[in-house]
Amino acid sequence: MADPYRQFFVDADKDNSGHLTLDELTLVLRKKGYKGTDEEIKAMFGASDNSGDNKISLEEYLIAMGQLPPKDHKSAAMRSAFRAFDKDGSGSIDRHELHAVLNEFRQTYSEADAARIIELGDTDSSGSLDYEEFIAKAFGGSD
Fold it and tell me: pLDDT tens digits for 74-112?
């Protein structure tokens, strides 16, 4: 018998692009009897789209289904954390974004504190943290 997770992905990928769109995921979930709301499906989709490209790759899908090894889960978690900090989707985190996220966590950091944190991790002197800098500073290494 074929792997049911891979088979679900293949069945959902109607255009054979190798990625699932929100529409493809919604269609196959409804076809299989899922009764959740469109908002719940959208939330599932967003949680699975670790790359932020509005598509779910097979790898992202298998990570979301718990079918890939812990290393892949760590990578997905790190990318998800980065995307949460990168409020404007620019691919980097500036001091304003960092300060906003710290405030969301009810941390008492000033703009100056956020600027200093950025400065400590900003290896290319860009004034912001790109993905690699963020991972090195926040998680102590690369994915």
Answer: 666 677 778 778 888 888 899 899 888 888 777 678 889
Gap between the Cα atoms of 22 and 29, Å rounded: 11
CA 80, CA 78: separation in Å to the nearest integer?
5
> How is the chain split among helix, strand and coil, in percent rounded to 5?
60, 5, 35
User: Of 77 and 119, which is predicted with more confidence?
Assistant: 119
Contact indicator for 130, 91 with CB cutoff of 8 Å = yes
Of the candidates 83, 89, 73, 90, the one whose C-alpha atom is nearest the C-alpha of residue 138 is 83
Distance CA 131, CA 78 (A): 9
Measured between alpha carbons, how far is 55 from 30 in angstroms, rounded to an integer? 18
